[in-house]
Every structure is written in C-alpha cells, then in structure tokens.
C-alpha cells in the first residue's frame, strides 16, 4: 500500500492532535551510524563488549545501517513521511575520542552536515548527548561508577552545544540512565558488562544524575534559548498479585527504575526506600546540582513492569507474571494503556510538565514478501494502539507535545545484535537497501491527518 493509497482511505473527522504536535522517530548513533573506525572515532564500551563476544547473534555495529554515509537517504525518508521532528544521538567518542581532551574536528563536521540536512528537510533536530556509547578510556577510569566522569561529560556537552547550538535548540542529556545502570553495571547483560549488584546500580544511577545536572547548568549558562531536558525509560511497576511481599517488591523496583532518575532531576529527591543504601554515595550538595528545571522530558515507553519478590536478584525483585496475551519478539508484553496511566501520573503528581514520547515501538519477526515488501500488521497495531492512548491523554489535558516512534530503521539492537528489528523501514544488512514497511506508510498517514485511523 502506498502512502497515496493510504491517504485515499483515511478516516474523516476532526484532528485528535494539535497542528503543532511533533511527529517523527528516534535513533541512536551507535545503532545506526557504523563507520566505527572512520574519521578519528574513538573506541566505545560497546565496541569492547562486542569484541569480547557478548553479542547474541555474533554480529557487530561496525557497519550497522551505515547511516554515517547514507544519512541523506534516511532524512529523505523522514521528509517523505511528513516528520517534523527527529531525535538522534551524538557519538561522544566521535567528537572526543578519549572522552576528554583532544577534540576530533571530523566528528563535529559530520554532525554539522547531519544537522544542516535535517533542517533543510524542514525537520526539528532533537539531539541527545549520551545514548550509551561511553568512550572506553573513561570506562577504564571507572566510568559511571565514579564521580570523575562528571567533568568530562559537562565538557563534552559544552563542546557539542557550542558547535551546534546555533541550529539545534533541543538538547537531551541522557537516554535511559536506568537501563545503563541496571543492565550494564548491575546484571552485566549490556556494556560494560559488570555484575556489581545493588551498589553498582545505585552508583551508576547517581553519577549519571550528577553529570546530567552539571551539564544542564553548563549548557544553560551559554544558551539561554535552548530547550533542555533528558530522556528516561519509564514503566509503571505493578505486583503480579496481592501478596504483600510482591507488592513491596514492586514498590522497591519502582524506586530504582523510575524514581531515582525521575525524582532526581524533577524534585532533587531520593526515594525513602533507597535512602539508606545510597547514603554513602550521595555527597553534600549533590541533590541541589541534580535538580534542574528542565523544559521538556522525553519518555520512553514499551510496557508496564510486573514484579515479584525473589531473593538472589538485586533488591530481591524479579519479573513476575504479566497476565498478558500479546507479546513482541523481545518477549515484552503489549500494554498500551500503561502509557496512558503514565501520562496521567505526570499530570496529577508532577504538575503536568511538558513531555513527549521519545521512544515507543516494537520488534517483530518481519517477513519479506516475494515482491520485497514488509506487511508488518503487528507493528501497525502496536503503534496504533499506543498513539491512541496518547490521543486519549491529550484529550484529558495531559501536556504531551509529541510522539516519536522507535525506530526509523532496523538497527543494531544492542546485546541482540542485528537479530531484532524495530524499524518502520527495513534495512537489508547485506545490501543496506531501505524498504518502507506498512508501518511507515500507516504512520505517515497519521502524521498527515492528525488522527489515528
């Protein structure tokens, strides 16, 4: 089905979203750029994690989608779909190969070209400073486990915004600090691959918060007109049943997963249930630095979290029975109403701040038909159901400014390698050919009409 044919069958009626609502997609530098040893880029923790044989399908991101060379084609796809916003990340080691010190001019030149092309297409560039590709030399010095990383991150933020801030107004500090801390430092399934348990998780969370607050202040001091924020993967935590132990476990996990990153920047607070465990990590003045009046919060949402008490895991919490009948290829439950609950919570508990959906999408086992098309009905249904919940939240007065699908392209899905496809555009990893899926065409029609068909 072409976009034109989709338009002919579009439902009639009033718009469900305001005309200034921003629509688009998100990507991450490491997952799409490739060019891992090109033009002076430094080594990242994910390069080492891959070299150590930790990727499930044995693949790497050395080429990925080759966006570094093919970005004009990818931006043309965004423009054709009607995007007016695009969240992408900068690769810290492409700009400062060692993480601190010498600047790589060719890295900044690439992002100059990228930003100019995005603007030329009439799309708002939304830059994220850190989407997991920590320079390996900084990890060798302790990474997010220590306070020494705070200064280099603020330095990197100043350098990036000084170069691009005349054209890029929207800046987001971190992407999913909770995933970095828990999966990367707590249980070791992501780079850098450490199993440091509760203390490692809380140290990584706190030092990301501290670096973020320092960078926000550094940018604001030099760019009074910048739109500043961060991006957090937020998921309502529920107990699998009414057992008091399981209910307490869900509260603990909510504190770790949601409240440490969220209440840090929004309230300058640490959850009471974690105060004792974090007492040796938090120093005087830290929380004052961490709290910052951001302009926009990016929310990544994929599902609720259903938890149960189980000793032997960090915080004595483990996954419970989600009681769900729809699942993605990542074995994640499909729970669109959880997104509505999350947005209502922001309205009722946090003063209805400006938020946008920075990531929402699903991996499915796409099938390519003989004519080369991808009829990804499950992904269409997933996005449709979630956008419908956003429309419901907007109608109910939630201050939601935009929706960005994850992701524009099939890409390197971290520890899963190239085996899981989230894109609304298929990438053939042998030829690098891009093929818009049915989900791309459906999404383009939603953007055009401002309603969910």
UniProtKB/TrEMBL annotation:
One of its GO terms (cellular component) is cytosol. The lineage of its organism: Bacteria, Pseudomonadati, Pseudomonadota, Alphaproteobacteria, Rhodospirillales. Its EC number is 3.2.1.21. GO terms for molecular function: beta-glucosidase activity. This is Beta-glucosidase. It comes from Paramagnetospirillum magneticum (strain ATCC 700264 / AMB-1). The keyword Transcription does not apply. Belongs to the glycosyl hydrolase 1 family. It comes from the Bacteria. One of its GO terms (biological process) is cellulose catabolic process.
């Amino acid at each position: 089905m072409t976009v034109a044919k989709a338009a002919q069958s579009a439902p009639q009626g009033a718009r469900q979203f305001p005309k200034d609502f921003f629509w688009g997609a998100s990507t991450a530098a490491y997952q799409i750029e490739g060019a891992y040893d090109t033009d002076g880029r430094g080594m990242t923790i994910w390069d080492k994690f891959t070299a150590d044989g930790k990727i499930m399908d044995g693949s790497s991101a050395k080429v990925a989608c080759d966006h570094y060379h093919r970005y004009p084609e990818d931006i043309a796809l965004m423009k054709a779909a009607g995007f007016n916003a695009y969240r992408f990340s900068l690769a810290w080691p492409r700009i400062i190969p060692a993480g601190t010190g010498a600047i790589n001019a060719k890295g900044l030149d690439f992002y100059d070209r990228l930003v100019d092309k995005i603007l030329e297409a009439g799309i708002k560039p939304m830059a994220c400073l850190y989407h997991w590709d920590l320079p390996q030399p900084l990890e060798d010095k302790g990474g997010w486990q220590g306070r020494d990383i705070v200064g280099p991150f603020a330095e990197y933020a100043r350098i990036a915004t000084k170069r691009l801030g005349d054209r890029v107004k929207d800046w987001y500090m971190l992407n999913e600090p909770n995933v970095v801390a828990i999966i990367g430092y707590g249980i070791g399934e992501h780079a850098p691959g450490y199993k440091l348990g509760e203390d490692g998780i809380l140290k990584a969370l706190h030092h990301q918060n501290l670096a973020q607050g320092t960078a926000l202040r550094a940018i604001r001091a030099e760019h009074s007109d910048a739109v500043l924020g961060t991006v957090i993967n937020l998921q309502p935590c529920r107990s699998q049943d009414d057992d008091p132990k399981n209910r307490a476990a869900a509260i603990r996990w909510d504190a770790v997963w949601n409240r440490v990153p969220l209440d840090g920047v929004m309230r300058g607070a640490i959850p009471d249930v974690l105060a004792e465990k974090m007492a040796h990590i938090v120093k005087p003045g830290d929380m004052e630095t961490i709290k910052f009046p951001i302009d926009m919060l990016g929310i990544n949402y994929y599902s609720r979290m259903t938890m149960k008490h189980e000793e032997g895991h960090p915080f004595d919490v483990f996954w419970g029975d989600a009681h769900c009948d729809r699942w993605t290829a990542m074995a994640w439950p499909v729970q669109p109403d959880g997104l509505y609950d999350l947005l209502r919570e922001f309205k009722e508990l946090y003063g209805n701040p400006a938020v946008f959906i920075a990531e929402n999408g699903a991996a499915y086992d796409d099938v390519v038909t003989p004519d080369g098309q991808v009829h990804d009905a499950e992904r269409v249904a997933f996005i449709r159901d979630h956008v419908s919940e956003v429309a419901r939240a907007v109608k109910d007065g939630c201050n939601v400014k935009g929706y960005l699908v994850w992701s524009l392209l099939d890409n390197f899905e971290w520890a899963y390698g190239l085996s899981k496809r989230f894109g609304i555009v298929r990438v053939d990893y042998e030829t690098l050919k891009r093929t818009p899926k049915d989900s791309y065409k459906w999404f383009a029609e939603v953007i055009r009409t401002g309603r969910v068909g």
